Amino acid sequence: QVQLVESGGGLVPYGGSLRLSCAASGSIDSYVMGWYHGAPGKQRELVATIMRGGSREYAPSAKGRFTISRDDDKNTVDLQMNNLKSDDTDVYYCAAHSLNLGTFWGQGTQVTVSA
After folding, report:
1. CA-based torsion, 21, 94, 107, 10: positive or negative
2. What is the pLDDT of residues 51-103, one digit of tens each?
């Protein structure tokens, strides 16, 4: 129902920062939005989620370093990633979760942290 496109990935040095953005083709106000990571073909793991109203959930490895935000007027969800580590290297996916409609995924964007 909703189409998601991620952007902002790239190559960054250890300790650097990236800001990932997820643009939705439709309204996201009815969805819990999230960022996940995982290599292609592997199970995706939670990085962060944000509910309508701003309640946030983070993976332990992301807490204190990453910040998820949403703008329901612009239909975008961002992930600010600071103090990046080598273990953060992965493909990052945007997701929209609906209790009634299920989960919709973006295509993913590559984040590579150099040693």
Report:
1. positive
2. 999 999 999 999 999 999 999 999 999 999 999 999 999 999 999 999 999 99
Per-residue model confidence as pLDDT tens digits over 9-44: 999 999 999 999 999 999 999 999 999 999 988 999
Backbone conformation region of residue 32, classed left if phi is above 0, alpha if psi is from -120 to 50, else beta: beta
DSSP class per residue in the chain? ---EEEE--EEEETT--EEEEEEESS--TTSEEEEEE--TTS--EEEEEE-TTS-EEE-TTTTTTEEEEEETTTTEEEEEE-S--GGG-EEEEEEEEETTTEEEE---EEEEEE-
Handedness of CA 81, 32, 70, 9 (dihedral sign): positive
CA neighbor of 57 nearest in space, from 19, 97, 21: 97
So what's the pLDDT on residue 61?
Answer: 96
The tokens for 10 are 């790239």
